[in-house]
Amino acid sequence: MRRAVLVGLVGAVLLPLVGAVPSAAARTGPEALRADLDEILADPRLDGAHAGVVVRDPATDEVLYSRQADVRATPASNAKLLTAAAALEELGPEHRFRTDVVTDAPRRGPVLLGDLHLRGTGDPTLREQDLHALAEQVAASGVRVVRGQLKADASWFDDVPLGTGWMWDDEPYYYAAPVSALTLAPTADFDAGTALVRTAPGEPGGPAVVEVVPRTDAVRIDNRATTAAPGTAPDVRVRREHGGDTVVVSGSVPAGGAPVEDYTSVRDPAAYAVDVFARVLREHGVRVGGTGAGVAPAGARTLAERESMPLRDLLLPFLKLSNNGHAEVLVKAMGRKARGAGTWDAGLAVVEERLAGLGIGRGTFRLVDGSGLSTMDTVSPAQLALLLDNARQRPWFPVFTAALPVAGIEDRAVGGTLRGRMDGTAAEGVVRAKTGSLTGVTSLSGYVTAADGTPLIFSVLFNDFLSDSPKDLEDAVAIRLAEYRGAADRPREIAPLPNAGADDPATRVDEGAVECSWTKSC
């Protein structure tokens, strides 16, 4: 394991004692790199802001560049690097989530004389099609009528749905969906605890047609959307009312146009899952006497079961698409496994223990959630870089790096949140890094193969800027590292880049303030 290295530009400090500082053009090797990175970070958008940057050479344990390296800052979704590493340590790459259907009720022929329980352990990949597979198993067991209720058992985790420090106005959006041990995702992005709202045109001048996918009574639609004239621009807004189940759909969609799809969080994910399952059971010839909530009795027998994909595969949508719900499920799963409590407190204590084994000392950082959605999270770029360095020694390292977004690769399953950044540059295909975005926060930490073949580790944390998000400066740092040629390096011209964090004033969302995957724009 790498030891934490005192950071500082030792050579730069000693140069005045032995001779004049070389001109910019005469600098070579790390000196040339440092000069160029200094130029990038001199951008006036960072005036008054926090700009923490660390570059490490893992082969030599040398810190090639350091600026505010040990100053803690809000990491945004770079916090997912900490959660992922801890989960791989505690749960292991082969960990799977189990969902089953159980009962302790007696049977009289095809009639179950009691309750049926749908029991979850946090699977964020459970979809309607998986409920069909469970229903098939129940039907195959011979049950046709359930005299009792179909009950949701989400007791594997606690009943605290939202993380500490999450903003109240984020509640309706799918990236802040409630966390539950029993939940459902509408698509293969596995945004658990959400539903897809599809708004299609009706007759011109009349109401739009709104449907929820999957079909459920757990979401109530207040349809205020209209059908506009053909050829007009769609302008649909979907927002769940604070603390309730009603989703207001407003705006307009053009006649003859394609449906507009958006996501909404669901107030009670367990009730949502069991509501959809009750309908699915009916489609398979099994009638239930209503739905409710309740813990399955000890010793209940299993009628149907499903296991999720292993963690090694779940890491791909988790890190590539910066999925907040996956992070929080993993935190609670770690708490349940190691301490018998599926809570944030228990899980984050396990995260701290596991990170200590990866060189990040206890009490030197703060996580109050697993995703980085909370602005109360704080960590330094030096700690992130050290974690990335020490992760290289772990057997799960190939799984970890394969799940990171890859700069400039168009395939969403590969490029993830970096698919539209740094394409056509030296960084394309050679930078693997985790992005992070909140209002006034942007971060990028990961791995890059330099032009001379040297593997480098870097972490960039920008906080408290007032401009559009300066993601282009993160990109410029990563590109410069991809161009680095070791001892033969020379200063390079720093070309301006498109700002991936620039806000489009025509939209209602500040694109730079959230991960692009949260707006489904990457």
From TrEMBL:
Signal peptide annotation: 1-26
Keyword Signal (UniProt): yes
Enzyme class: hydrolase
Matches recorded under InterPro entries: Beta-lactam/transpept-like, Peptidase_S13
Keywords: Carboxypeptidase, Hydrolase, Protease, Signal
Family, as annotated: Belongs to the peptidase S13 family.
Protein name (Swiss-Prot/TrEMBL): D-alanyl-D-alanine carboxypeptidase/D-alanyl-D-alanine-endopeptidase
Taxonomic lineage of the native organism: Bacteria, Bacillati, Actinomycetota, Actinomycetes, Pseudonocardiales
